[in-house]
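>> received
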Amino acid sequence: MKRQSGFTLIEVIVVFTLLAMIMAMIFSGIDSGRRTAEKGEKRITAINEIRVIQNIIRMQVSKAMALGVAESDEGELLKFIGDEKSITFVSQMPGYLGSGGPHIQKLELVNGKDGEVLQYTHGLISNYDDEDEMSEFDDAEPLVLLENIQHGSFAFIELDEEGAPTDWLSEMENPVALPLMVQVDLKMSEQAKEPWPLLQIALQVDGAPTSQRRSTLNMLQNRSRREIN
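>> returned
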C-alpha cells in the first residue's frame, strides 16, 4: 500500500508564516517609500514657497520709486520709511497682482499666534487734496506672506553725509532718500519646514549719480557675499 504524500500541518503553518513576514516586509517598504516621497514633496513645496516670497519682495523693493509715502513735520516728503520691523515705500505693481500705477507698499513683522508673521499691504498711491479722504492703501487689508517666524528684522545701508555707504542700520536715518540696500533676516521657528535664506536687495534707482551708484552697489554686493560666506 502506497503512502500518500503531502504537507504536514506544521509545514503549512511555517509556509504561511514566512509568506506573511515577506508580505509585511514588502508593504513596509512601500509605505516607507510613500512617506519618504511625501516628505520630499512637502520640502520642495516649502522651498518653492520661500523662493516665490523672496522673489516678490526682491522685485518690489528693488524697484522702489523716489515718491513720497508720507510727509515729515518739517514738510519733507519721506520716500522710504524703514525700521527693524517694517518698511514702507512706493513701487510699481505687476499687472497680475493689482491695478496699474505706483502703489504704496508695506512689509511688516507683527506678532502672531506662534511667533511673528510677515505681512504685506499695498494700495494705489492717491493724489487726493482732501486729507480726510481714505486712499486705497489706508483701506487695504494686509496679506500674510509667511508664518512660523521666531524672530525677524529689516536692516538698511544708506549713503552718509560724505557720500560713502554706511554699515547695516536698524532704522532709516535719511528717509527722504532711498536706501542703497535692504536686508530681510528671518529666523524660522521649529514649526517651519525650511529656513529662510538671508535676503539682501540692491535698489535700482535713487538720487545718486548712476556711475557712483553702480560702483557703490558693486562694492556693497561684494562685501555682502563675503559676509554670507
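>> Confidence is low (pLDDT under 50) at residues 206-211.
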